[in-house]
Amino acid sequence: MVADFKLGFTSCYDQEDKYVPKLINSYNYPMTESKNPVINLVLRSTNMQRHEFKSAFISFLFVLVLMTAYYLLRPVRDAMASDWSDAEVSWLWTLNFFISTGIVALYGIIVTKIAFKRLVPSVYLFFAASFLVFYLMVQTSTDTVFVDKAFYLWVSVFALFHVSVFWSFMADTFNKDQAGRLFSVIAAGASIGAIAGPALSAVLAQVIGVQQMMLVSALMLLIPIPLTFYLSRLKTTELGNATLQNELAEAKIAGNPFSGFKEFFTNPYLLGIGLFLILYTGIGSFIYFEQKNLLVDYSRADRTSIYAVRDTITNTITFVLAFFLTGRIVTKVGMPTALTIVPIVIVFGMLVLAFSPILLVALGLWITRSAGNYGLARPAREMLFTQVDRESRFKTKPVIDIVAYRGGDLIWAWAFTGLTQGLGLGLAAVALVGAGIAAAWGYVGFRLGKQYESK
Fold first, then answer.
1. pLDDT tens digit string along 324-347?
2. Gap between the terminal Cα atoms of the chain
3. Percentage, residues of the chain above pLDDT 70
4. C-beta separation of 367 from 318 below 8 A
5. Residue range 294-313: average pLDDT?
6. How far apart are CA 24 and CA 42, in angstroms?
7. Prediction pTM value
8. Domains parsed from the chain with CATH numbers
9. Other C-beta atoms within 10 Å of 14: how many?
10. Selection from 172, 224, 165 nearest residue 399 by Cα
11. Can you tell me the mean pLDDT for 358-369?
């Protein structure tokens, strides 16, 4: 049997010229050049192998479309909140936690009823249909306040759920080695979507109107459906990850539909991932409230401009970091260090904020935290799920990504309120508490990285 390294994407063939996908990981692919100069540039700029390019590009496009569809609707959602009091928004956040928990529980039941190959496409088809329903409700309902609040809640649920399912699918498509090199590059697609979505939203709001943007988002969510089927095929060919693929594609994910909640609390590894995420939300909540309080004397227009510049800088840094550096960082310094870098930087940033509680420092901390998370910590965290079984990826992972995240939001928001309004602490003292949270976040990340490398 010989390997025939043909032009384009590497394939393995036997003497009868039959495709042999299981040989994919048996060679080091000495032919790294392509006739396409763009592909060669990407291969040189990243830590990607040539036979992985097609799968990585489709995955990159997949998450780019998802994030664009979400960020197209996020300004619509946030604009609604200006019509409500702080108490109304707080109640909506509380409802969001319970609704998200209920939907994750329902999802746990669904994954035991639907064949795996139809599961991910069904999720995005469902969300596309839901936004079509909201569009029709807006056109026909007389109670616009109820529809607006329902839409606000639903977009908040969608914000975490669609990304969680995507990364579950990625962890099921790429093996551990591939994830370490490719997840950061794929995550860069999310950064581009996060830049393109708001820009597109600003234009479409003036051209076609706010309500019609629900239809645009619904149509965009149909694009990932064929991509899931194509990636499933590439998994068994170019990627060479065909082990048990045929049997599992047709099978349902068996087991207790609520096992994701149970495993979250009983599996130390998964509980550690959840704790890592909860501590991350703590940092986000503290910096968010610090910014809010420092911006109290600014006009709404000035606040909007400041946030817009902040998010543009954040997403640009995220893209550069994720596309060019993260894959190399993880492979060179290891997972424990990769999961610890951002928390350590935040510890020092919080100490600076404690001694200089000014807006510029708070904004810089937000940019560092967000860009560091989406460019490094988030891709590294998603790699952790390549070391768990499929049931955990599709049942326990949503519990972590959605329930633990929203629960963390509630816990830390009330904790910040208790420190400031209850104990009367100033911004400097609260920043010191935040430094302690960041230190705990780094310690948990280091321990998780050690567990990952020992598996």
1. 666 667 677 788 888 898 899 999
2. 33
3. 78
4. no
5. 70
6. 21
7. 0.66
8. 39-454 (1.20.1250.20)
9. 13
10. 165
11. 86
Instruction: Return the closest-CA partner of residue 445 out of 334, 354, 351, 352.
Output: 334
Is the pLDDT at 92 greater than 90? The verdict is no
Identity of the residue numbered 232 = S
Evaluate whether 278 touches 334 at the Cβ level (below 8 Å). Answer: no
The residue written with tokens 């399912």 in the block is 165
Tokens of 187: 């995550």
Neighbours of 332 (CB within 10 A): 10
Tokens of 262: 């149970």
Matching residue, tokens 């109670």: 143
Two tokens, residue 235: 């998994």
Q: What is the maximum span of the chain, computed from C-alpha positions, in angstroms?
A: 78
Q: How is residue 244 written in tokens?
A: 């048990």
Q: Burial of 44 by CB count in 10 Å (0-12 exposed, 13-18 middle, 19+ buried)?
A: exposed
